[in-house]
Amino acid sequence: MRSFLIWSLSVLHLIKAEAIELTDMFGEIQSPSFPDSYPSDSEVTWNISVPDGFRIKLYFMHFDLESSYLCEYDYVKIESEDQVLATFCGREATDTEQTPGQQAITSPSSYMSLTFRSDFSNEERFTGFDAHYTAVDIDECLEKSDEELSCDHHCHNYIGGYYCSCRFGYLLHSDNRTCKVECSDNLFTQRNGVIHSPDFPNPYPKSSDCLYRIELEEGFFITLQFEDNFDIEDHPEVSCPYDYIKIKAGLKEFGPFCGEKSPGRIETKSNSVQILFHSDNSGENGGWKLSYTAIGDPCPLVEPPLNGKIEPSQATYTFKDQVVISCNTGYNVFKDDVESETFQIECMKDGIWSNKVPVCKMADCKSPPELDHGFVTFSTPHNLTTYQSGIQYSCQHPFYQMVPNVTGIFTCDAKGVWMSEELGTHLPSCQPA
């Protein structure tokens, strides 16, 4: 019957609605005329706003309203962002299931509204309510669920807000949450090496543009070999719109590459390669890794000279490979009328050797020096003076004798020097007997 009367009389009675704006960090809200009875046909809304980074906590110190089924007569309604957080009515002493009691209501954002409404008639005296609100700090580091608002690496909360920071080696992006790397000045000049995305095999950083340059001497050709473990953010319909690798080698371009299929082996045919890796501000992909090698034009196979050898001895030689030529014991390298122990040649970029292979010539001690008051006898036919040839010095007997008293035997050694086991390179002398 009362519900029918409320509907009927609502045509005759217009409830006067009032809105009150509250912007302080804390405050008190009381029903009209509190602690006296609140008036009938009343509607008051308190709109509470605090700064961003805070939410609002509301609790009641006193609550005494008319009780009704589903609080359809008098009530307090608490809302935030078009969401009803709670609706209360009744007396704390008898209607505890509909009254706030010790419950505190916390808004999900920095805005909350509290609306008090009374109908046209109260059958008893009700004193209303006394509520208090306060702004409480939001710990964004624990509660931010929106990916666009979270920190890439480290989150630091402070009263009223938060800020992000990055691990060592990273830079904070202009969006103040994304951690990027400075990777635009990577130069590789060795003939082989390994290159990979930052933090590989962990997810690569967002919002980064990495440039890796391989610069080798003209004449080398660089080959790239990507590992099978390849993971760059992809799109099912558009080719690499987010993250990608592009490769530039001379006038050629390879890519863009993305997805989970490795580019495999790439023969660039160039001595200069640029690898550009781009990532946008989202995604958690593992990245990529490659190894590179460089070879040049091949040179003809080198044959060792007669009585000689080459090091290293291999099936093929390419640009910048070097070969050392040496001779067997008792022989010396002979090139352009100059004798030496070794001779080095290098494979040039046009596929030819830097010099011709020299010859190995047997060591020659040449004619032995003469001995005053003495003479020399050759122990080899034809008076040979080459390696391992032998001679013997003697004095004119009986007028002279050899000092010191030695055999006087000398042998031509591997270096082309007459050598005695007793005197080394020194000659004996013939002294009067």
From TrEMBL:
Biological process terms in GO annotation: complement activation, lectin pathway; proteolysis
Domain CUB: 18-136, 183-295
Coiled coil spans: none
Subcellular location: Secreted
Cystine bridges: 183-210
Chief localization: secreted
Record keywords, A-Z: Autocatalytic cleavage, Calcium, Complement activation lectin pathway, Disulfide bond, EGF-like domain, Glycoprotein, Hydrolase, Hydroxylation, Immunity, Innate immunity, Metal-binding, Protease, Repeat, Secreted, Serine protease, Signal, Sushi
GO cellular component, one term: extracellular space
GO MF: calcium ion binding; serine-type endopeptidase activity
Function: Functions in the lectin pathway of complement, which performs a key role in innate immunity by recognizing pathogens through patterns of sugar moieties and neutralizing them. The lectin pathway is triggered upon binding of mannan-binding lectin (MBL) and ficolins to sugar moieties which leads to activation of the associated proteases MASP1 and MASP2. Functions as an endopeptidase and may activate MASP2 or C2 or directly activate C3 the key component of complement reaction. Isoform 2 may have an inhibitory effect on the activation of the lectin pathway of complement or may cleave IGFBP5.
Protein name stated in the entry: Mannan-binding lectin serine protease 1
Gene name tied to this protein: MASP1
